[in-house]
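User: Structure tokens for both sequences below?

Assistant:
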Amino acid sequence: MNGTVLKVICLTSALVFISNVSADTALIVKELQVRKELEFALIDLLNGIMRSEVITCITILSDTVYLGVFEGTLFKRTITVPFVMIVVEESEDLLSPNYDTLESLRQSRKDGCNVYVIILANGLQVARLLKFGDRYRILDTRAKYIMLHDIRLFHSKLHYIWKRIVNVIFLKYHKTIKGNVRAWFDLSTVPFPNPIKGIFISRRVDIWRNGKFHYGRDLFADKTADLSNEVLNVVYYDHVPSVIVIKSNESSKVGGVEIEILNTLAKKMNFAPKLYQPSNAEAYKWGQKESNGSFSGLLGEMVNGNADLALGNLQHTPYHLELTDLSIPYTTQCWTFLTPEALTDNSWKTLILPFKLYMWVAVLLVLLVTGAIFYGLAVNYMNLLDYNNSLQITKKPVTDSKPVGMYLFGEITNSILYTYGMLLVVSLPKLPSGWSIRLLTGWYWLYCILLVVSYKASMTAILANPAPRVTIDTLKELVDSKIACGGWGRETKKFFVESLDEIGQKIGERFENIDNPEEAASLIAKGIFAYYDSSNFLKYLSVKRKSSYTSMEFENSTANGTEVSKADRDLHIMSDCVVNVPISIGFHKNSPLKPLADVYIRRIVEVGLVEKWLNDAMYRIRTMDTSNEEVKALINLKKLYCAFIALAIGYTLSVICLVGEFVHWHFVVKKDPNFDKYAMDVYYTNKNKKH
């Protein structure tokens, strides 16, 4: 019972309050006659914008107080253009709008509406709407805004909004001063590019009175074309070749591709860049989200609004786009791994390196087949001669002597041996009889000459050039190598872990976060690590370590806190790119500078300046790279290991054959009952007759 009475009382109080507010609102509108005057001012404003600008559609946000302004007259007297009308309740919290309002705002952003007319009686609602729209990018901050002048919009906590929404017109209503003078509106805007210092003071643009503008100025002139030499804070992180910091004594000079782009933008847009590095840049680098929700490093400066621009090889990724605005990519970089080169020495394989496996199999098969053909032709020729001799009746007795040259191929072992000798360009001791064998010998010689010349040329190149390096050039080879891999940042590990490729997922499982590239290079030189970064930075890292190695005077030295040893392996950049990443310059979230900066950056790229600056930045690094030294045709003892190995194989086989013959002589021949050491010729003659 008591609960029911309480509900009735609350409902009655609420109705009384609403009726009072409605009555007060009606009195205010009636007293100021805002509806009609505001309607005419908006008609002139919108028509003026549509005559000078390309308007896609117009989004109108209003409440019940000013809903009468947007009657049929406004839509009839404005140039035809699509409208999105959103009516919000007076009690709605626009920092967390209801579903209908949110979906309407999203749809208008999706449709590309580039004019917002926000006419709300409650300035706090407008302020909370602007906060929400900026935080979640529901509102297009680079669109044109028309809203009522309200002191609550200029609170110090909202000053960051007016660094992002600069194309805005505030309508401030003024009452009639004299009898025949109608009410008028003061049109003002934010003082961009001048910074807001403590107190927000709007800048008058024009005055609307009696259905016309007093000055006739361009209400939405581009404020970013000339920044009046305003100082912009630019945070940077040293990352070759985008930003290169050259330290000399106590001073440092900053250069690189992005510095050149920044100087060009500063000249064209007329601003003065103020460069600085974030605190503990070496430790935090680009920065990441901390446990308390804040961001560190370069990204922290952008998220906190301390910097207007950010330089430092920012990847054009959804993660960075969520926190900042990125310019159009000015280049694309290959991101891959810096891996160790294997120390395996394959000089002992030089004899077989000129030909691949299948080529050696083909040579062996040709040798066996040709030797068998020679043997077959020789046997056939000797049988033919024996047949002819049996048909002829001569006075001379028939002898068992073979035709001249037939002994070369009369036995299968001799046939293979002499065929192999021709392959080694060893001439035959006798020219064989029989035209078929002679013709085959001639053509086989041509084959041997071509094969030997190819082998010699390849062998000469192998001996004259450095030994081939055993490197890791694909992700599969990196996975199979079982070495650890890593890079900077949790987002990089997340990239591999969430990869759709099974090999990428395996990389992500053993991916380690390492903050110090110098330490990573030391681990790579030991052959136990692979480091992930852009190929240009990896080239700088490898050259830096190699120059430290070549400049040392003793066997061991310390360079940049890492030990460099002669036993360390060379560093190799994997030839396959893991991913080609677009690189951009960063702007603070919803920055008004981005559209015009994109235009200039596109022109810089099109004329080839970025490529020229990139070559300039990498020129010194490439010249210091000692891995591309001039190759000299020198043969050292190490390259001839193969010759000694071949000789050792020959000695070994010869000794084995000698031992075999010795065993056969003592345990087979001498044990034969017919063996007579004093008549060995008779023993072998009888033995041959048996066979």
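Moving on to the next sequence.
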Amino acid sequence: MTEMTTRAGLAIDSRLASFLETQVLAPLGRDAEAFWKGFAALLADFVPRNRALLAKREDLQAQIDAWHTERAGKPHDPAAYKAFLTQIGYLVPEPGAFQIGTQNVDPEIATMAGPQLVVPILNARFLLNAANARWGSLYDAFYGTDALDAPPAKPGGYDEERGAAVIVRGRQFLDSAFPLASGSWADLAGRDGITLAEPAQYIGATEKGALLKNNGLHIEVVFDSSTPVGATDRAGIADIMVESALTTIADCEDSVAAVDAADKLLAYTNWLGIIRGDLSESFEKGGRTLTRTLAGDKAYKAADDSDQTLPGRSLMFVRNVGHLMTNPAIRLPDPGSAAGAGGSEIPEGIMDAVFTSAISTLDVEGHGRFGNSRAGSIYIVKPKMHGPEECAFTNDLFDAVEDLLELPRHTIKVGVMDEERRTSANLAACIHAVRDRIVFINTGFLDRTGDEIHTSMRAGPMLRKGAMKGSDWLKSYEARNVAIGLKHGLSGKAQIGKGMWAAPDLMGQMMVEKIGHLRAGANTAWVPSPTAATLHALHYHAEDVFAIQQTLPEPAGLDALLTIPLAEGVNWSEAEITEELDNNCQGLLGYVVRWVDAGVGCSKVPDINDIGLMEDRATLRISSQHIANWLLHGVITEAQVMDSLTRMAAKVDAQNAGDPLYTPLTGNEDAPAFSAAKDLIFKGVEQPSGYTEPLLHHWRQVAKAG
């Protein structure tokens, strides 16, 4: 039982209250009593508004459901549909011409282009790895992945043959991005022989290397003949260190399982460690205890002989929870309850906004060891907003948080996830609602597809998931997101991002395909690991994104975006239906069992073909909604779903057989994990916006209660 205490009429977990007062407010010199009083007033204002916005979501969805139900069996009428969406206020008028006015944005976001990591905030080791992924070894990235087109390394220590192939590939990169005035890097005899074709690319000298810059990104060519690699290298080059993850999102949302006060306290404690610069994590590896801490800055001597530094760590965003969920860590006043018990839970997104911003104020006011934002800003990604009203609510909330924390207006910047259909269809108006604090828009196939299915749930059966990737709405969504961002002035001021490469073991394929994100105009894109960030950084050396952005067309209209991905005229075979159902059930079970039983919100989950994919709640949303849609329209039956779940449970059990802490699904069909999987499907139609959180949180709490 959580011990609660009372602050300004709020019932709050006592550990959370103590944490904020002693670890955050005291170092800031803020009065705790005044803070809690202000927080209570903020909640009194924003909780009713939050509830009203959620009610509007449900009202709009009910009207859309009724519209499709009334037209069941009739051909879809795009013109009538668009007029209907306008009539009910789902589509709003476009704002007049405007440019965003965001100021005090760090260069990693505004004027540099490069990879972005997303990392679960509950895992300190992963969080440190991501923060330290600002610089990565290109040699290690090639040696350990299939991005190098060479025979794999032989077991038993360093494989000199593969190492030689890595060195050749590294020289090819240097010749491409940093050509010498004459000859090739392969012919270089030593550090003193570097004469670049473009002298401005030379930035300075580090202790052991040369610092170079191309398309805004740095690399360090490390010369060290005392290392095994450098000793056998003609020029003495031991490695090429690549500036990799410019930015990282510490995630409180889709990639974590945070359902109570203890989970939230861990999230906020880890964020505090990042902001203060003292986060550390010890772990066993190879029979030794290792301790990981944050990396320091990279020192160098510039061409004018002055001493300079470059950031050694990724610039950190924190992703707050959306508007839907509440959390029992803090409860509103309830006169009918016992003293300290409290009434209803407060919205978790409001709690995140206040707590993560309060912690980040330590950075703004200079209390961190390293510092995060050199521009004095706090960067919050806000997911799962539906339309401009919800964006305006977030803007007002951040105003109120700034006032509560005595911060200048627009210190808190916002990243808008374009992952809900009502946001995509009204993206310009959404940007306008946060125009003086926006630093980020991002597309995401999985959540956006989940909302696409749920919004049009009653229109008819949807295409198979694979076919959706080639559908008109998705192509329009990806292109419009970039074009609308550029039209309203994001280039040079904010990030326009693309989604995740989900397969961390398929780096060769990533290197072929993910450069397409740059060519589409995105100045950042998500990668699943620090190694992937180092490899993806090479794409930003190959292409000048900001030059590409100047060539892209104006945004297209809404017709293609509003095309519903219905499987009209498709007659699937039984084998095709079973294949799709099994694929969905296997992915759903493989993710749910880790979320519910182990509290792991993001991990490499084997798919039905045993390929490890980085999965989070967005994956689950599309899988569960797709099955629910086919079930609703009679493509499949409940018996078929249960048969698939049973067979796929055995497969997931086999895939996890090597985990001594794993509890099998088979034989535990009434346990929380399998029960959650069934609920996600059979209650999928009625879930708000098709979100998985309410059911996952319930069953995780059941599992934690034992």
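User: Anything stand out in the second?

Assistant: The longest strand covers residues 217-223.
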